[in-house]
Design brief:
With about 400 residues, the chain is an alpha+beta fold. About 30% of the residues lie in helices and about 30% in strands. The strands form four sheets. The chain has a nine-stranded antiparallel beta sheet, sandwiched between helices. Strands 3-2-1-4 form a four-stranded parallel beta sheet, sandwiched between helices. The radius of gyration is 21 Å and the shape is globular.
Length: about 400
């Protein structure tokens, strides 16, 4: 059976998760990408074909002129609609392209949730040629508000504005970095930030748990720490799932970010119609002791998920992301490490090499590395992570 996997840049989710899972399933994999050399270096033995994967027509043509497909899949935020359209064209299982589009387009997500009565967040869309000063005066969005790219990802260029002048300034700064892109301005939703990780086959949907997310101080929203949450109060989970149902999201993996306010109301921040990234998916598979990546691929092959995944229910986990606080060259950092201490398995993986020079992005592109720790006792997990962070240093030389 042949799997076509659409990708942009190489990611840990693909190289360490989905490709090994495909090999264990005995699948022949063809990787379609607009960055073929990067993938050939990351996975030298994979079949990699160059393709304008952002264009669904190019994807369909590339597949049609190669081997017959049994599944079309992507774990990229940017390519879900293209993969869904290609799968539908070839009559293969996949996500509804309309749901993929609603999840990716943050303005459309807000409009659809409001139209279905699922939730209403005051928001406005700013087209590439529109004057943000007009929006600042007449949008009806209260302050503070959040400015974000309409089709952005990973808190990239997401920033808090306390008033009209900040709103206009942030729009100008974002447009300078992302010319031609539409922006969304929406009311700031206060509350603790969480994620919900789900996996469905269109018939059943499993809730895998989620993460409590700790963010950097405003005005930016950098995810600095993730702590596993085995289960939320039933009312919270039901609210999130009802909003996903309204969006038509229920097939394959989905990573949903939401806040819970003081009144217990759960409100969506964004829906990433894919498996969670930044190595959280690798940790989740280990923590739950399930073949998570294989299950995701099986849904795209048309196989039903088991009624019970057999996931472990006694796990505790935390991820920590040492983060650059300035532009410059990384001159000190620990090497990749694996430890076992007091019943905790800890892994550290560098995300930036010594000697590399980078600008300051104020997003997860500033991550220097990731610490993953799993066990059965949260106190022991936290202690192991804190001890590791305290014993090592990361230095940036301007």
């Amino acid at each position: 059976m042949r799997l076509y996997l659409l990708a942009l840049k190489p990611t840990d989710s693909v190289t360490e998760g989905f490709l090994p899972a495909a090999a264990r399933l005995g699948l022949a994999v063809t990787l379609l990408t607009d960055r073929p050399e990067a993938h050939r270096q990351a996975v030298p033995h994979a079949e990699v074909l160059e393709c304008d994967v952002r264009d669904f027509r190019a994807v369909i043509s590339r597949i049609a002129t190669h081997h017959a497909p049994d599944a079309v899949f992507t774990n990229s935020d940017h390519l879900q609609t293209q993969a869904a359209l290609a799968a539908d064209y070839f009559g293969l299982p996949g996500k509804p392209w309309q749901a993929a589009l609603r999840a990716k387009d943050k303005a459309q997500m807000r409009r659809h949730l409001a139209a279905t009565g699922a939730d209403t967040v005051r928001s406005a869309e700013l087209g590439p040629a529109q004057d943000p000063a007009v929006l600042a005066r007449a949008s009806g969005v209260p302050y503070p508000c959040v400015v974000k790219p309409r089709e952005g990802v990973a808190s990239e260029d997401v920033v808090l504005a306390d008033g009209p002048e900040e709103l206009v300034a942030h729009c100008a700064e974002t447009r300078a970095r992302r010319p031609g892109e539409a922006l969304v301005v929406e009311e700031y939703l206060s509350g603790q930030l969480f994620t919900l990780e789900t996996l469905g086959d269109g018939r059943v949907r499993h809730v895998l748990g989620g993460f409590r997310t700790e963010l950097s101080p405003p005005p930016h929203f950098i995810e600095e720490r993730m702590t596993f949450v085995r289960a939320y109060p039933e009312a919270v989970t039901e609210q999130v799932l009802a909003q996903l149902d309204a969006l038509g999201v229920g097939f394959g993996a989905c990573h949903t970010e939401f806040v819970v306010g003081a009144d217990g109301r759960a409100r969506l921040i964004e829906v990433n119609y894919r498996a969670i990234g930044d190595q959280c998916d690798l940790l989740l598979a280990e923590l739950l002791d399930v073949p998570l990546f294989a299950h995701v691929l099986r849904t795209h092959l048309g196989e039903p998920l088991p009624a019970d995944l057999g996931a472990r229910a006694d796990g505790a986990a935390r991820l920590e992301y040492p983060c650059a606080d300035r532009a410059g060259t990384l001159t000190a950092a620990p090497e990749a490490t694996d430890l076992a201490v007091d019943g905790v398995r800890l892994a550290y993986r560098p995300l930036r090499a010594l000697g590399e020079r980078h600008a300051l992005h104020r997003t997860n592109r500033d991550f220097l590395g990731v610490v993953r720790a799993t066990g059965t006792d949260q106190t022991a997990v936290d202690r192991a992570v804190d001890d590791f962070l305290g014993a090592h240093r990361w230095e940036i030389t301007p």
